[in-house]
């Protein structure tokens, strides 16, 4: 852990500091105060991502006043593996803003990622202007909407609760062994990200479809079934998923590229609260056709 001092502000720079529990908890405080999210939940999911590389400024009392983190986020894009880095947890406490702290942390994180040899960088933001000067551009995302396919197979689904330790173990096992949800655009790994997102959004339903060896994340809005992710070693068809779930909605929306579902729908521009931005100097991280980052992989 590097700990150079910045005498100008009396702040201390800490990098790669997650092994230090007090520093991790100080970041959790920062993110709770700024975004009202609790990354302390990671304690239930075997702790923070070991690939994470946080960059933070800490005050004399040990408060994290500014942070920006990088982490390994391997992708599959148009069937090719891409070594990508994700950026997250970017925040500065209000009393420390407009002093260049965030710019400093961004430069450090981007330089680190370049030295590590990552091919592309991704982030989600409601402030895209912050990142354009650093080579990031907003990438459009599309969901896919269409009529329900004719279901196949018998109804065989069980709701899962991450508050139940056996269910959590089952979901974790299926996540650890998952195949790619799409050949066009998938994120590999990210078990913790999936579990955190499922906890953060109380509307997300998780179901185990044992005959298909799958755990699915879904929501219902009116009479529309929204499929957020399919976690399985081999992707089942949408018809089999609908059959196992016993769903009888009017329409289905797929919130990831549906190329492995044996089904196609109409592409609709996705309007999320954040832009997906990609820095892609080698032009390898943007798929050739419409795609979407599954909501379970938001970071
Ligand atoms: C956005 C935020 C991180 C900026 O932190 P900061 O320390 O005040 O930023 P800096 O002083 O280092 O400014 C860095 C650059 O970003 C620009 N900038 C700052 N806030 C900005 C904003 N909201 N939108 C666009 N650009 C912004 C600055 O003008 C500066 O540009 P320059 O390098 O050309 O001078 C901080 O306001 C914050 O924590 N906001 C709430 C949480 C948030 O939005 N986080 C980002 C999530 S993606």
Topology, element by element:
Layout: E1 5-6, E2 11-15, H1 21-35, E3 53-58, E4 64-72, E5 75-77, E6 80-82, E7 84-92, H2 101-116, E8 120-125, E9 137-139, E10 142-147, E11 158-160, H3 165-176, E12 185-187, H4 191-200, E13 205-209, E14 214-221, E15 224-232, H5 238-245, E16 251-254, E17 266-269, E18 275-279
Secondary structure class reads alpha+beta
Whole-angstrom Rg: 20 Å
Described by its quaternary structure, the protein is single chain
Number of domains: 2
Main sheet characteristics:
8 strands, mixed
Number of helices: 5
Mean pLDDT reading:
96
Named at the architecture level, the CATH assignment of the largest domain is 3-Layer(aba) Sandwich
Q: What does this 3D model show about the protein?
A:
The structure is a single chain. The protein has helices spanning about 20-35, 100-115, 165-175, 190-200, 240-245, and strands spanning about 5, 10-15, 55-60, 65-70, 75, 80, 85-90, 120-125, 135-140, 140-145, 160, 185, 205-210, 215-220, 225-230, 250-255, 265-270, 275-280. The strands form 3 sheets. Strands 1-2-3-4-7-8-18-9 form an 8-stranded mixed sheet. It has 5 helices and 18 strands. The two termini are about 25 Å apart. About 20% of the residues lie in helices and about 30% in strands. With about 300 residues, the chain is α+β, with helices and mostly antiparallel strands. It folds into 2 domains: about 5-120, Aminopeptidase (3-Layer(aba) Sandwich), CATH 3.40.630; about 145-270, Aminopeptidase (3-Layer(aba) Sandwich). Coenzyme A binds near residues 101 and 127. Coenzyme A binds next to strand 7 and helix 2.
């Amino acid at each position: 852990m590097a700990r150079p001092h910045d005498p100008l502000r009396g702040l201390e720079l800490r990098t790669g500091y997650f092994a230090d529990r007090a520093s991790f908890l100080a970041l959790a405080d920062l993110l709770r105060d700024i975004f009202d999210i609790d990354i302390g939940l990671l304690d239930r999911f075997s702790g923070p991502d070991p690939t994470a590389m946080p960059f933070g400024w800490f005050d004399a009392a040990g408060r994290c006043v500014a942070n920006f983190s990088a982490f390994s986020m391997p992708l599959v894009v148009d069937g090719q593996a891409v070594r990508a880095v994700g950026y997250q947890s970017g925040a500065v406490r209000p009393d420390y803003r407009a002093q260049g702290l965030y710019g400093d942390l961004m430069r450090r994180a981007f330089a680190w990622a370049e030295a590590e040899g990552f091919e592309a960088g991704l982030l989600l933001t409601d402030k895209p202007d912050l990142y354009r000067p650093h080579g990031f551009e907003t990438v459009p995302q599309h969901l896919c909407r269409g009529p329900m396919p004719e279901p196949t197979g018998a109804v065989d689904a069980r709701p899962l609760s991450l508050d139940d330790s056996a269910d959590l173990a089952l979901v974790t096992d299926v996540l650890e062994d998952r195949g790619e949800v799409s050949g066009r655009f998938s994120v590999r790994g990210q078990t913790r990200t999936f579990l955190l997102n499922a906890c953060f959004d109380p509307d997300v339903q998780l179901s185990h479809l044992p005959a298909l060896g799958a755990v699915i994340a879904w929501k219902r809005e009116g009479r529309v079934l929204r499929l957020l992710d399919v976690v399985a070693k081999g992707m089942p068809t949408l018809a089999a998923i609908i059959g196992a779930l016993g769903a009888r909605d009017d329409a289905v929306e797929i919130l990831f590229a549906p190329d492995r579902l044996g089904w196609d729908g109409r592409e609709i521009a996705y309007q999320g609260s954040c832009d997906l931005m990609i820095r892609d100097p080698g032009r390898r991280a943007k798929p050739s056709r419409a795609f979407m980052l599954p909501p379970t992989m938001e970071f």
